[in-house]
Write a structure and sequence with these properties.
about 30% helix, four-stranded mixed sheet, alpha+beta, D-Maltodextrin-Binding Protein, domain 2, five-stranded mixed sheet
Length: about 475
């Protein structure tokens, strides 16, 4: 063979190897799916499924009793069969006992009996559980049409304690390690042409230019304007209106202070100052994004004209800022706000990692902080729960809001629930606890090599990596 023929053969072999290994498709050749996320949780537990990042992890590590495609098209991956009577008062569940958490913990009948009893007790007070061979009958004294939807939530997924900080589910992955700004998930059983490892990296906007984006498979949970355009061009693009609200938490004990923050801090100007690189904002006037019943498009109603300068104490306010490159813009907004209200905003910059511990522990050292609320189903708990929970984002919990929230969680009648939601939103507005900023509309980017992206996508923002094949 001549030198020229040898070079040609080597070139063809090189091109073929590139094609086969999937180079240019991040993580494919190594079987590793890498993600950038704004902050990582200190623990992985179903009780914290309402947190965005925790939910992303649970989608990989856990499997709920039911899944839903649209409306009431429920199905299960961990039940051999299930039934309900026409009145939705009696249910029969037959667990697939071949499933297991790991080799030492099976999804057996003893586990299922304890699981379904404990989980159902969170849903209703009056019920009974009866074992029928390899199946279990759950009976209620009255119709319970929302029961299956309740069992489809990840906070109610079967789970066991792996460590004091980690729970293990019936998903394809488990938490292999945590620490050093990373959480590594490992696949329980390898599959061909699928990802065997998921690496979740904690992202800091201040270090945006230092990341090796070429190895990242998913950066859809960070601001897209932080990602180099040349990287984006190599990904498949999907347009998506997210069920996500970005809001300003107003955590101050004085209602008069909250009233001035809500009315005198111009929502449009503030959001443009906080995110100076962002150009598109979809307006919302309450905490709910459009797509969830009760949402109202448009900017929140603000009226500062009739409010005199604040005459009480505690004139200094603390705004936690987890972005970078916006200090000058926020300083200008703070100056204008002070001149109108007599209240001084002190901007304290924190990275997402530094901010995270403050969010859920009393006392929160901030008066204002921007957070994102999102969900994969139109569930009010995702947008209201953090307001009433002790581990939410406020130092004080309001008993009136808590009572209405509990009624929303229990009531399954759509008409009554809608009235309760309107009541909750009305009471929330009276208290000036949250200033709505915008709903996120964005393009999502995923590796082109994935052949079956539509599988398990749920609004496409929380991919199920276990299902992906190349």
């Amino acid at each position: 063979m001549s030198d020229r023929e040898q070079k040609t053969t080597s070139l063809i072999a090189g091109i073929l190897s590139l094609f086969l290994c999937g180079c240019g498709s991040p993580g494919a050749e190594s079987g590793r799916w890498e993600v950038l996320l704004m902050g990582l949780p200190e623990e992985v537990a179903t009780a914290r499924a309402w947190e965005t990042v925790t939910y992303y992890i649970l989608k990989q590590t856990h499997e709920p009793l039911f899944r839903t495609d649209e409306g009431e098209n429920f199905h299960s991956r961990i039940l051999k069969k299930w039934e309900k009577d026409i009145l939705s008062g009696q249910y029969l569940f037959c667990p697939d006992t071949d499933k297991e958490f790991d080799k030492d913990h099976a999804f057996g009948p003893e586990f299922f009996s304890e699981y379904i009893t404990k989980t159902t007790s969170k849903y209703a007070r009056n019920f009974s559980v009866e074992r029928r061979g390899g199946c279990f009958s759950v009976s209620f004294p009255s119709p319970q049409k929302g029961y299956i939807e309740f069992l489809s939530r990840y906070e109610n997924a079967p789970s066991i304690r792996q460590t004091d900080k980690v729970e293990m589910g019936l998903g394809e992955f488990f938490v292999g390690s945590m620490g050093g700004g990373k959480i590594v998930l490992r696949r329980k059983k390898p599959v061909p042409n699928g990802y065997s490892e998921i690496v979740l990296n904690e992202y800091s906007p201040a270090k945006a230019k230092t990341y090796d984006y070429g190895r990242i498979s998913d950066f859809n949970k960070i601001p897209v304007f932080d990602v180099p355009r040349e990287i984006l061009s190599g990904f498949a693009t999907y347009n998506n209106i997210e069920l996500r609200s970005d809001v300003l938490i107003i955590n101050h004990p004085d209602a008069e202070v909250r009233k001035r923050i809500y009315n005198c801090l111009d929502a449009d100007r503030f959001r443009r100052a906080f995110f100076p690189q962002k150009n598109d904002f979809y307006n919302i006037s309450n905490v709910l994004p459009v797509g969830v019943s009760g949402a109202v498009p448009g900017l929140p109603l603000q009226d500062c004209s009739a409010l005199p300068k604040f005459g009480g104490r505690s004139r200094d306010l603390v705004l936690f800022n987890h972005r970078s490159g916006n200090i000058e813009q926020l300083a200008a907004v703070a100056e204008e706000f002070w001149s109108r209200t007599g209240l001084k905003i002190n901007v304290v910059s924190r990275t997402p990692k530094e901010l995270s511990p403050f969010l859920h522990k009393y006392p929160r050292p901030y008066n204002m902080v921007v957070i994102s609320l999102d969900t994969v189903t139109p569930a009010y708990e995702s947008f209201f729960g953090f307001i009433v929970r002790p581990d939410g984002y406020f130092n004080q919990q309001d008993p009136v809001l808590k009572k209405i929230f509990d009624e929303i969680s229990r009531d399954t009648d759509p008409g009554k629930r809608a009235l309760l939601v309107d009541k909750f939103l009305g009471e929330l507005h009276k208290r000036y606890l949250i200033l709505p900023l915008y709903q996120n509309v964005k393009e999502l980017y995923y590796p082109r090599r994935i052949k079956n992206f539509i599988v398990g996508r749920e609004f496409m923002t929380y991919p199920e990596v276990a299902d992906f094949r190349w």
